[in-house]
Amino acid sequence: MLSVENLQVAYGKVQALWGVSITVAEGEIVALVGANGAGKTTLLKAISGIIPHQSGAVVYLGRHLEGSPSKAIVRSGIVHVPEGRKLFPEMTVRENLLMGGYLAGPSDRQQRLEWVFQIFPVLKDRHRQLAGTMSGGEQQMLAIGRGLMAGPKLLMLDEPSLGLSPIMVEEVFRVVAEINKSNVTVLLVEQNTAHALSIAHKGFVMELGKVVLSGTGSDLLSNSDVRKAYLGL
Questions:
Q1: CA atoms within 13 A on the CB side of 97
Q2: C-alpha–C-alpha distance, residues 82 and 120, integer Å
Q3: pLDDT (tens digit, 9 = 90+) per residue, 222-232?
Q4: Of 89, 100, 111, 151, which is most buried by a Cβ count within 10 Å?
Q5: Which class for 11: exposed (0-12), middle (13-18), buried (19 or more C-beta within 10 A)?
Q6: How many Å apart are CA 16 and CA 78, to the nearest integer?
Q7: What are 5-48's pLDDT values in tens digits?
């Protein structure tokens, strides 16, 4: 579905990605794990067209995305839920969700809204509440729900469990697995290595802008270097 080939990205004179290559097959959950500053967020931004890349290729469903504007990438089915949620705090839950579905027609928007409310019943219960008054966990659910309103084939999630309570962390990963079962491929950036790899079909470990390890989620979880560096074991 997605192939990133030898991607090079720099912020001015500072190199952020050094020849990164990853693949995401349709139907997979793929985890990108690593410490802060490893380049995980930069990679998602390059895929979604938010930042340019100097060289390399991003190929999605057989089509090169180089030079494509972000809105065209969203229309193609790649949806990026950024770190930090980036909600509209003075708008209601429902209004935030409808903003996510602004490219869809009225019928599709309504169907997607009902689907999101099935996944996140709390959002249905609080659809008139201002987003800025919700708890951190509820806001994360809303951010994911807004992404789903765009009708993704490939959903890219950047640190969805960041700053959440242990109970909400468990709920976020349960929801990610449920979304994947609804025929949505997931590319997941996470510092919570254990949780991410436990639900991932495949994973890539990034350090200092490079992919240093890859394999199935279970293989990486049992890898001694991963366990020592990221799990404290």
A1: 28
A2: 19
A3: 999 899 888 86
A4: 100
A5: exposed
A6: 22
A7: 999 999 999 999 999 999 999 999 999 999 889 999 999 999 99
What are φ and ψ of residue 56, in 5° steps? Answer: 95, -175
For domain 27-47+69-230, the CATH superfamily is P-loop containing nucleotide triphosphate hydrolases (3.40.50.300)
144 vs 157: CA distance, rounded Å: 8
Report field, pTM of the whole predicted structure over 0.90? yes
E strands, 65-151, are 78-81
Q: Are 199 and 177 in contact (CB under 8 A)?
A: yes
Map tokens 């989620």 to a residue: 217
Query: Is residue 65 within 8 Å of residue 58, measured between CB atoms?
Result: yes
CA nearest neighbour of 92 among 120, 45, 131, 43: 131
Q: Do 47 and 156 meet the contact criterion of CB atoms below 8 Å apart?
A: yes
Token pair belonging to 210: 């490079």
CB proximity list for 188: less than 8 A, separation 6 or greater: 29, 30, 31, 32, 156, 157, 160, 176, 196, 200
Domain residue spans of the chain: 27-47+69-230
